[in-house]
Design brief:
two-stranded antiparallel ribbon; alpha/beta; 16% strand; Alkaline Phosphatase, subunit A; 12 helices; globular
């Protein structure tokens, strides 16, 4: 029976569909409130000096560490690609990362990642949540956690924006027990939510009066109901009002031809560029998704296409953040739910492998130009101390400067650790 070379979109749709929802629908569960003042470009320099931000590039399905951060060209499982030197002395990567290799002096790679779940449904949730111990609550994804622990920036923009293919909307499920206020505003294909812009037949003055009337109705409605229900409606309208004033963030005519060439016109390149623009505008946490990385068959041709598509815009992102001085305050993470098997299967593919894989990162609070941990000569297992996702969560929170007093959640009086307390930060990664 013929088996397609890659997992198909519908094979992952069930778990993702649980996250889908419209901006209004998701916000009905929100516990949010009013947003702060608008971001002004003149504030950019001051904000960069004070406020930490993060961008997570999620390669859904599982990036092969052997065709990226930890090549083993001389091993039986190495595959056809060479390893190449980089701008960081002593560190080599796969030749498919030729652009990123020139930026390696800015990066830190952890090559000793060893996690547990080898299925998408379990792995995606566990990696995004930092593997806390089971306490009977659903823990938040990393973006929601950062939004809670650090709050929004002075920009007044949503603290957690998710740029993804396909549909957008308000994704309340990411927030877990924190409540939907800390969910993600998803921009389907990087576009603003539907019906965001003000109808041309309504003047700004009329719109202001409409909002004043809405607020009065909300006050009356809230008087006899739970506060979080009324706050949900206020939150979605406040969110929309903020984005209405920042429609320039979605104006592609403002993108320079140089940026189009450097980031690429393909989906992932456009979305990473949009992520950079969101960081520049002052969004606290940006997640950029790319799908179809599950290379059970024809792995090498798949990587030849996918890794190259990632390589160029990722290198451009690192270069731009460094040139703008933003890398001192922005944490950059490249993550999947697991790596790929060293052993090549009968379909010339690599299967799921959580036992030994790599995570790349850069930016605030981290050392630069380092590779921490290692795998054995064949890449089959970690050689030395293994690091689980809980170690990485502690590392990222430390790098972002989360105050020690914020390193636990208050779940209606129940203190909960922000990450697995059996893990600790990887000190070799921290600056």
């Amino acid at each position: 029976m013929h088996q397609p070379p890659l997992c198909q979109p519908w094979e992952h749709r069930l778990s993702r569909r649980r996250l889908l929802g419209t901006l209004a629908g998701g916000a009905l569960a929100t516990q949010g409130g009013a947003l702060g003042p608008l971001f002004s470009p003149a504030m950019a320099e001051e904000l960069r000096a004070k406020e930490k931000q993060a961008i997570l590039i999620w390669l859904d399905g599982g990036l092969s560490q052997l065709e990226s951060w930890d090549p083993k060209p001389k091993s039986p499982f190495g595959g056809p690609f060479r390893s190449i030197t980089t701008s960081a002395p002593g560190i080599e990567v796969c030749e498919l990362l030729s652009h990123t290799a020139k930026q390696m002096h800015h990066l830190a790679v952890l090559r000793s990642v060893c996690t547990q779940d080898n299925s998408h449904s379990a792995g995606v949730a566990r990696i995004n949540r930092g593997d806390p111990k089971d306490r009977g609550v659903v823990y938040p994804f990393l973006g929601s956690a950062v939004a809670k622990l650090l709050g929004p920036t002075s920009s007044g923009l949503p603290p957690y924006i998710w740029i993804k293919p396909q549909s957008g909307g308000f994704k309340a499920a990411d927030a877990g027990f924190l409540g939907a206020r800390y969910g993600a505003l998803a921009l389907g294909d990087g576009k603003p939510p539907e019906n965001l812009l003000l109808n041309k037949q309504i003047t700004p003055e009329e719109n202001e009066l409409r909002n004043e009337l809405r607020q009065r109705f909300n006050t009356r409605y809230a008087a006899r109901r739970r506060r979080e229900i009324a706050d949900a409606n206020s939150y979605v309208f406040d969110l929309a009002q903020t984005l209405m004033r920042r429609e320039d963030l979605f104006d592609e005519s403002k993108i320079t031809e140089r940026d189009r060439e450097r980031y690429g016109t393909h989906e992932l390149g456009r979305h990473i560029l949009q992520g950079r623009r969101m960081l520049e505008a002052g969004v606290r946490f940006v997640k950029v998704n790319s799908y179809h990385w599950d290379s059970h068959g024809d792995n090498f041709n798949a990587c030849d296409s996918l890794v190259r598509q990632f390589d160029q815009p990722f290198a451009a992102l690192i270069e731009d953040l460094a040139d703008r001085g933003m890398l001192d305050n922005v944490l950059v993470i490249v993550l999947s739910e697991f790596g790929r098997t060293p052993k090549i299967n009968s379909h010339v593919g690599r299967d799921h492998w959580p036992e030994a894989w790599s995570v790349a990162m850069a930016g605030t609070g981290l050392k630069r130009g380092v590779a921490v941990g290692k795998t054995n000569d064949d890449g089959t297992f970690v050689d030395g101390p293994p690091h689980d996702i809980g170690h990485l969560f502690h590392t990222w929170f430390r790098a972002l400067g989360v105050p020690p007093e914020n390193m636990s959640y208050d779940n209606h009086g129940q203190p909960l650790p922000v990450a697995n307390e059996a893990c600790s930060a990887v000190s070799e990664l921290l600056a």
